[in-house]
Protein backbone atom coordinates (compact mmCIF):
# COMPACT_ATOMS: atom_id res chain seq x y z
CA UNK A 1 0.00 0.00 0.00
CA UNK A 2 2.87 2.39 0.78
CA UNK A 3 4.49 1.71 -2.60
CA UNK A 4 1.18 2.29 -4.36
CA UNK A 5 0.91 5.69 -2.67
CA UNK A 6 4.45 6.51 -3.84
CA UNK A 7 3.54 5.48 -7.40
CA UNK A 8 0.57 7.87 -7.41
CA UNK A 9 2.79 10.71 -6.15
CA UNK A 10 5.37 9.95 -8.86
CA UNK A 11 2.62 9.82 -11.51
CA UNK A 12 1.37 13.23 -10.36
CA UNK A 13 4.89 14.65 -10.78
CA UNK A 14 5.32 12.83 -14.10
CA UNK A 15 2.05 14.32 -15.40
CA UNK A 16 3.49 17.84 -15.21
CA UNK A 17 5.13 19.44 -18.23
CA UNK A 18 8.23 20.00 -16.06
CA UNK A 19 8.77 16.23 -15.69
CA UNK A 20 11.80 14.40 -17.07
CA UNK A 21 12.53 10.94 -18.50
CA UNK A 22 13.73 8.15 -16.20
CA UNK A 23 16.88 7.87 -18.29
CA UNK A 24 18.68 10.53 -20.32
CA UNK A 25 22.18 11.58 -21.30
CA UNK A 26 23.92 13.85 -18.81
CA UNK A 27 26.85 16.20 -19.22
CA UNK A 28 27.70 17.20 -15.65
CA UNK A 29 27.63 15.93 -12.09
CA UNK A 30 24.84 18.41 -11.32
CA UNK A 31 22.67 16.80 -14.01
CA UNK A 32 23.39 13.38 -12.53
CA UNK A 33 22.18 14.57 -9.12
CA UNK A 34 19.02 16.01 -10.70
CA UNK A 35 18.23 12.67 -12.35
CA UNK A 36 18.19 10.71 -9.08
CA UNK A 37 14.96 12.01 -7.65
CA UNK A 38 11.75 10.40 -6.43
CA UNK A 39 10.34 10.32 -9.94
CA UNK A 40 13.30 8.36 -11.31
CA UNK A 41 13.34 5.85 -8.48
CA UNK A 42 9.61 5.26 -8.10
CA UNK A 43 8.73 5.37 -11.81
CA UNK A 44 11.76 3.18 -12.51
CA UNK A 45 10.68 0.67 -9.88
CA UNK A 46 7.11 0.60 -11.15
CA UNK A 47 8.36 0.07 -14.72
CA UNK A 48 10.47 -2.87 -13.56
CA UNK A 49 7.42 -4.32 -11.77
CA UNK A 50 5.38 -3.84 -14.95
CA UNK A 51 8.08 -5.67 -16.93
CA UNK A 52 8.22 -8.48 -14.35
CA UNK A 53 4.48 -9.06 -14.64
CA UNK A 54 4.61 -8.90 -18.43
CA UNK A 55 7.53 -11.34 -18.78
CA UNK A 56 6.47 -13.50 -15.80
CA UNK A 57 8.38 -13.70 -12.55
CA UNK A 58 10.61 -16.60 -13.63
CA UNK A 59 11.70 -15.01 -16.92
CA UNK A 60 12.34 -11.66 -15.21
CA UNK A 61 14.35 -13.36 -12.45
CA UNK A 62 16.43 -15.23 -15.03
CA UNK A 63 17.10 -11.95 -16.88
CA UNK A 64 18.25 -10.29 -13.65
CA UNK A 65 20.56 -13.23 -12.92
CA UNK A 66 22.11 -13.00 -16.41
CA UNK A 67 22.53 -9.24 -15.96
CA UNK A 68 24.20 -9.61 -12.56
CA UNK A 69 26.46 -12.41 -13.81
CA UNK A 70 27.53 -10.47 -16.91
CA UNK A 71 28.26 -7.26 -14.99
CA UNK A 72 29.47 -8.37 -11.57
CA UNK A 73 32.29 -6.16 -10.30
CA UNK A 74 31.85 -3.87 -13.30
CA UNK A 75 29.78 -1.00 -14.56
CA UNK A 76 26.69 -1.19 -16.72
CA UNK A 77 24.23 0.93 -18.68
CA UNK A 78 20.45 0.57 -18.86
CA UNK A 79 20.70 -1.14 -22.26
CA UNK A 80 22.71 -3.91 -20.58
CA UNK A 81 19.71 -4.89 -18.48
CA UNK A 82 17.42 -4.92 -21.51
CA UNK A 83 20.00 -6.96 -23.45
CA UNK A 84 20.04 -9.53 -20.62
CA UNK A 85 16.25 -9.74 -20.76
CA UNK A 86 16.42 -10.17 -24.54
CA UNK A 87 18.91 -13.00 -24.06
CA UNK A 88 16.44 -14.84 -21.83
CA UNK A 89 13.46 -14.26 -24.14
CA UNK A 90 15.50 -15.67 -27.06
CA UNK A 91 14.48 -12.83 -29.35
CA UNK A 92 10.76 -13.53 -29.00
CA UNK A 93 10.35 -10.04 -27.54
CA UNK A 94 12.49 -6.94 -28.01
CA UNK A 95 12.61 -5.84 -24.36
CA UNK A 96 15.00 -2.99 -25.16
CA UNK A 97 12.59 -1.47 -27.69
CA UNK A 98 9.65 -1.97 -25.32
CA UNK A 99 11.34 -0.36 -22.32
CA UNK A 100 12.87 2.56 -24.21
CA UNK A 101 9.35 3.75 -24.99
CA UNK A 102 8.87 4.11 -21.23
CA UNK A 103 12.25 5.26 -19.91
CA UNK A 104 13.32 7.75 -22.59
CA UNK A 105 10.15 9.87 -22.54
CA UNK A 106 8.63 11.87 -19.77
CA UNK A 107 5.03 11.37 -18.79
CA UNK A 108 2.72 8.46 -19.35
CA UNK A 109 -0.13 7.64 -21.73
CA UNK A 110 -3.81 8.06 -21.06
CA UNK A 111 -5.83 5.44 -22.87
CA UNK A 112 -9.50 6.24 -23.46
CA UNK A 113 -11.88 3.48 -24.52
CA UNK A 114 -15.33 4.42 -25.82
CA UNK A 115 -18.04 1.90 -26.66
CA UNK A 116 -20.95 2.84 -28.92
CA UNK A 117 -23.09 -0.24 -29.45
CA UNK A 118 -20.84 -2.84 -31.05
CA UNK A 119 -18.14 -0.34 -31.98
CA UNK A 120 -15.21 0.20 -29.63
CA UNK A 121 -12.74 3.00 -30.23
CA UNK A 122 -9.43 3.42 -28.43
CA UNK A 123 -7.44 6.64 -28.24
CA UNK A 124 -4.05 7.22 -26.64
CA UNK A 125 -2.59 10.57 -25.70
CA UNK A 126 -0.05 11.94 -23.27
CA UNK A 127 -1.65 12.63 -19.91
CA UNK A 128 -1.02 16.11 -18.56
CA UNK A 129 -2.38 17.11 -15.17
CA UNK A 130 -2.31 20.82 -15.90
CA UNK A 131 -2.27 22.03 -19.48
CA UNK A 132 -0.74 25.46 -19.80
CA UNK A 133 -2.33 28.23 -21.93
CA UNK A 134 -1.86 28.91 -25.64
CA UNK A 135 1.94 29.29 -25.62
CA UNK A 136 2.35 25.68 -24.42
CA UNK A 137 4.01 23.36 -26.92
CA UNK A 138 3.12 19.70 -26.83
CA UNK A 139 5.60 16.87 -26.99
CA UNK A 140 2.78 14.31 -27.17
CA UNK A 141 4.28 13.18 -30.47
CA UNK A 142 6.91 11.36 -28.39
CA UNK A 143 4.43 8.79 -27.09
TrEMBL record:
Example GO biological process:
peptide catabolic process
Matching entries from Pfam families are given as:
Peptidase_M1
Q: Which InterPro entries match?
A: Peptidase_M1_aminopeptidases (IPR050344), Peptidase_M1_dom (IPR014782), Peptidase_M4/M1_CTD_sf (IPR027268)
Q: Which GO terms describe its molecular function?
A: metalloaminopeptidase activity; peptide binding; zinc ion binding
Recorded GO cellular component terms are: cytoplasm; extracellular space; plasma membrane
Write the record's keywords in alphabetical order, separated by commas: Aminopeptidase, Hydrolase, Protease
Query: Where is each Peptidase M1 membrane alanine aminopeptidase domain found?
Result: 5-102
Spell out the protein name for this chain: Leucyl-cystinyl aminopeptidase
Amino acid sequence: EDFLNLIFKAMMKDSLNSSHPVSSAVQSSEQIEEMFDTLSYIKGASLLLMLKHYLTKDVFQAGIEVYLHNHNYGSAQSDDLWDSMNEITNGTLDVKKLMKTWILHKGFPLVTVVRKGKIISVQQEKFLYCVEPENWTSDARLL
